[in-house]
Known about the structure:
Elements: E1 4-7, H1 18-26, E2 31-34, E3 54-59, E4 69-73, H2 74-87, E5 93-96, H3 103-115, E6 120-121, H4 130-139, E7 153-157, H5 159-165, H6 169-176, E8 180-183, H7 190-198, E9 203-209, E10 214-218, E11 221-222, E12 226-230, E13 235-240, H8 251-257, E14 258-260, E15 266-276, E16 282-287, E17 292-294, E18 297-299, H9 301-311, E19 315-325, E20 329-338, H10 349-356, E21 368-372, E22 377-378, E23 382-383, H11 385-390
Parallel strand pairs: 1-2, 5-6, 5-7, 7-8, 8-9, 20-21
Antiparallel strand pairs: 3-4, 9-10, 10-11, 12-13, 13-15, 14-15, 15-16, 17-18, 19-20, 22-23
Helix pairs in contact: 2-3, 4-6
Amino acid sequence: xxxxxxxxxxxxxxxxxxxxxxxxxxxxxxxxxxxxxxxxxxxxxxxxxxxxxxxxxxxxxxxxxxxxxxxxxxxxxxxxxxxxxxxxxxxxxxxxxxxxxxxxxxxxxxxxxxxxxxxxxxxxxxxxxxxxxxxxxxxxxxxxxxxxxxxxxxxxxxxxxxxxxxxxxxxxxxxxxxxxxxxxxxxxxxxxxxxxxxxxxxxxxxxxxxxxxxxxxxxxxxxxxxxxxxxxxxxxxxxxxxxxxxxxxxxxxxxxxxxxxxxxxxxxxxxxxxxxxxxxxxxxxxxxxxxxxxxxxxxxxxxxxxxxxxxxxxxxxxxxxxxxxxxxxxxxxxxxxxxxxxxxxxxxxxxxxxxxxxxxxxxxxxxxxxxxxxxxxxxxxxxxxxxxxxxxxxxx
Length: 396
């Protein structure tokens, strides 16, 4: 069994890959999705070691700087698609606004194949725009696509896309027309969620990754066939029917991060930490390696980010990172993007600390503040924390 590279375009021609992807889902003909112009060969491996039910080897986002290829079976992809339909309003028709060589976009194609519908593609060749998105949602009402009248309509976005769409009246109206808007790929800021819900948008927060065939926890609860658990340090593991077999040509990482328990359930140990609230819902607090250690005390960036967004006026986005500090080891450093319509001046460190005092412990108060026009991102839209940290001029 050979792993075949599959070039996945970003424009409407992405629909041309649907027959090949459907063949992969039928078994025995696995593919390696890749963006146009990216390397077309897989890492050296023995084809005889590939899982018999392999459908797709999908790239991870490379959060640690070492992208890997997760080995997803047809059963895992179908289980994810069917559980998504079960959690929403049933099989539907999808708008595809994200690159389909990433798992979120790939799953829009898979869900469409499973539902027997045809997605409407947002043309990303000129970048993601509100006009193109609104046009794509409008096209859902056109004939064709294999959908019956009254079929639910969905899309999947990263938070930065949702934020941009809510700035545009026509795009916001398009969002309201959808039965569900899945939001994942990065932390979903509470203020952005409030803004979307106030506009009448039916958002659904999702959590997952390539290794779990995309989102497998919706609104803090695992979808059908999926599971989540925490170890003693709060590290999150995901399990169940959607979990990958492991990584292509990385037996070391496969052995370290994947396993099967005594009940035959496959598990993947993530790099995220979280907690479960009193209702049993999982909350992701951030990545293990994002935790800031300042003066010997740990600070979870997401708690500071949420507090800043809620307490400091005029903030559109905030990313908190640790930057080197000769006294504290790391300094809590907040990068802020202001809402241009707010008319507020850029806050100083003193302003931010005053707004948060009493809400956060003193050691978690930002010690550095920087403002900019946009948060650097990587992959499908996740904040690039290394790039954010580099924006702080802390000297040597």
